[in-house]
Specification:
With 351 residues, this protein is α/β, with parallel strands linked by helices. It contains ten helices and 13 strands. The chain has a nine-stranded mixed sheet with strand order 5-4-1-8-9-10-11-12-13, sandwiched between helices. A hairpin with a 6-residue loop joins β2 (34-47) and β3. 41% of the residues are buried.
């Protein structure tokens, strides 16, 4: 019996490996907010003489197109076609994002420009004592964004364009950071049209934006997000909380990402499926959600089950956890290698 279970897992991993060589031909429809991520790394060897704050001597800095743009980059790196619907501000930050997407072969023809608004930017400053290089930590983060919202006319046109493109898509991804690209009405229309067209919908929402996920195929959360929902609603367990929100928002499932604790898929009328993390020494977490969303879109876009998608998503998360640098973008080579490693792990454990 054990041998059969192990062999079934190996066969699934090999099947997912084959999927990496033959991803869906139809494009993934991606709609969501874009954020320019800036990172500064350096030495924090002493405090400022006027205030008890660290002085960081910058040794490295870089910029990265993040949020939904990071998902778009990952999808292209997996060999999928992407229709990316978003809005950029008409500023230097927007130009940096657009240029990076262009360089990484992401089609930007469906992106709108709000010329008078600022593209959201998040700057994170990391530091460590020079003698303790492995103990780098986040020291400060500051965010820049417009105080004005995107014009309703621009958001509505973007949503209508996305709805028009939906029939030719293999999956829909809504990456909602609450910055205005995805409106309440727009999300409802897009999800309803996707269900009508039998196209799976993957939502990665903020907890304050759950009302924009009603009817989706699957929604993603972190362990701490699920725990917060449990406490807010006075529920007894993670399983009860998942069942409550799956029913409330009419999802088929909820995928909870736990980083080094693995992933758990909750579904209607099914036992939770926990997939452990097999990375021995996790190194970083940046991009975990985006990698999971990217892998899910590939699997569900190919007609795979949520359980199969969850296994591919967990393998994608392990690629991120094992990465040495926080600049990692999920790609086909890394994910195929990880699937091979997992397959070998099960072969050894089954002996």
């Amino acid at each position: 019996m054990v041998d059969e279970i192990v062999q079934k897992e190996i066969d699934l991993l090999r099947s997912l490996h084959t999927l990496m060589d033959n991803p869906p031909e139809k494009p993934v429809l991606l709609m969501g907010d874009v954020i320019l991520d800036r990172y500064f790394h350096g030495w924090a060897n002493h405090l400022n003489s006027f205030a008890p704050v660290p002085v960081v001597k910058v040794t490295e800095k870089f910029e990265s197109a993040g949020a939904a743009a990071h998902i778009a980059r990952g999808l292209v790196n997996l060999g999928l076609n992407v229709r990316f619907f978003s809005i950029l501000g008409g500023d230097e930050n927007g130009q940096v994002v657009a240029q990076q997407l262009h360089e990484e072969m992401v089609d930007t023809s469906d992106i709108r420009i709000a010329t008078h608004l600022q593209t959201v930017a998040k700057t994170r400053i990391y530091g460590s004592r020079e003698s303790l290089i492995d103990r780098e930590q986040l020291i400060l983060q500051f965010d820049e964004e417009s105080q004005e919202s995107f014009p309703d006319s621009v958001v509505n046109k973007l949503t209508n364009s996305a709805i028009s493109a939906l029939p030719g898509s293999c999956a829909v991804v809504l990456s909602d950071y609450g910055k205005g690209v995805i409106s309440d009405d727009g999300a409802a229309k897009l999800i309803a049209k996707a269900r009508e067209s039998e196209v799976p919908v993957i939502c990665d929402p903020k907890l304050t934006g759950l009302h924009r996920t009603v009817g989706a195929t699957v929604a993603l959360f972190e362990i701490r997000g699920l725990e917060l929902l449990r406490r807010r609603n006075n529920l007894q367990s993670a399983e009860e909380t998942a069942a409550y929100f799956i029913d409330k928002h009419d999802w088929e499932g909820m995928l909870v990402l736990g980083g080094e604790h693995g992933s758990t898929l909750y579904q209607k009328d099914a036992k939770p499926l926990h997939i452990p993390c097999l990375v021995e020494v996790p190194k970083q977490l940046i991009g975990l959600h985006d990698a999971a969303v990217t892998a899910l879109a590939c699997a569900l876009g190919d007609g795979r089950t949520l359980a199969e998608g969850a296994r591919l998503a967990n393998a994608a998360c392990e690629c991120i956890l094992a990465a040495i640098t926080d600049r990692v973008v999920l790609n086909r080579r890394k994910l195929k290698t990880r699937l091979d490693e997992l397959s070998w792990h099960f072969q050894i454990s089954g002996r």
